[in-house]
Structures are given as C-alpha cells and as structure tokens.
Amino acid sequence: MVDTPQTAFLFDLDGTLVDSVYEHVLAWHDALSAEGIPISVWRIHRKIGMSGGLFTNILLRETGLDITQERLDRLRERHKAAYTQRSHLVQPLPGAKELLAYLTESGIPWAIATSGRMETARPNIERLGVDVDKAAVVTRDQVRYAKPDPDLFLEAARRINVPIEHCAVVGDSIWDLLAARRASALGIGLLSGGYGQDELERAGAYRVYEDPADMLKHIDEVGGRRPANG
After folding, report:
1. What DSSP line would sit under 61-108, residue for residue?
2. CB 3.0-4.6 Å disulfide test: which of 7, 8, 66, 189 passes with 205?
C-alpha cells in the first residue's frame, strides 16, 4: 500500500484567522492622509495582504509622488500607530480557534505566515490562543520578501518540516494565492477578507469557503485527515 503524504496547512493571519482587514485599511488611510496623500479607501483594500513596503511603493507610484525611504519609514510608523489604536477591536474570525484546535488534536501540521511584522501580528496571534514562541509563526521581518512572493510560505513549510508541495495555503486575498502558486502549494480561499470567490479562484484557489468555520465543516474536502485513520 502506498503511503499518502500528510497534508499540512499554512495560514495567512489578517482576514483569514482574525477579522482585522478593515482595521488595517483604515489605519493605512489615516497614515496616508497624515502624509497629505488623498486616496479612496477601496483602493487601499485592494492591496491589503501584500507586504507593507510593497503596498506603499505601489500606492506612491500610482499617485505619482516621490518614493523616498524617509517617506516609506514615516508611513509605516504612522500606520503602526493608527492600527495600534484600533487593535483592541480585532477578534478571531468564526471558527478560527476551533479549526486550529482540530488540526492540532488531529496531528495535522500547521503554521501561520503573515505579511505583518511581529510587533503588530503578536497580539492577534495570541487572541487565537496560540503561543507565538512555541508555534510555527513566520512574519514579514523574518524573510527577504513578503507576498506575493513565496518566501513566507516556503519558510513556514520548512519550520514544520513538510515539503511545500504537500501544503495547502489558506488565505483571504489574491496575494496569498499568488504566493501559494509561486511556492507550488495548493491554495484555499476564504471570503472573510472581502475578496470575491471568482477573484480568489482566478488567483489559484481550488476551494473557497466563507470563513474558518465553513472550512472546518468541509475539512475532509481539502485533505484534513487524521494520520492514524488515513
């Protein structure tokens, strides 16, 4: 009998496990407004999920403004301050804690890989009941490039010692799924970050669910089997 490779799951954080997308959107809007950069909120939302540095580079280029390291650093600090003021509003998405608990109890490997830096990601991860110092967690400050580059997911797979080809990336944005494709992992999309099903499928999602609770209901569809049962 041929052994079936164990599926592992690599999770994005914002909009995938915690309901924080719109707090980030508004924080970036505050930061950009303070810098004198007028931009509609919806345009910011379309870029949430990629790295903050790439995000600000693209926005500044699209608005025709000068891109200087000083300005990028200032925007990052303003975003961090504005997000910190809203961070107490962030809660785990429905089913997020239960999904991670199911995988842990079933002996199914999982990791979290986020484009956020540890300074903003840690409180949200801890709200999930996850010990950041013990779990496999990869943040933006631990890799060279963030999404849509594959570095975060490749490092997350390495941390749990599972070949990336045997991993499923779970994310709410097209940037998660583009990074999954570049890493040669399967992609699972969640609607909980505001992207539509068709957008997620075009970016590479082979299954799309409403949120972590919906994914848990259909966990057998994506290879979430207990190793002992096969």
Report:
1. HHHT----HHHHHHHHHHHHHHHHHHGGG--BPTTHHHHHHHHHHTT-
2. 189
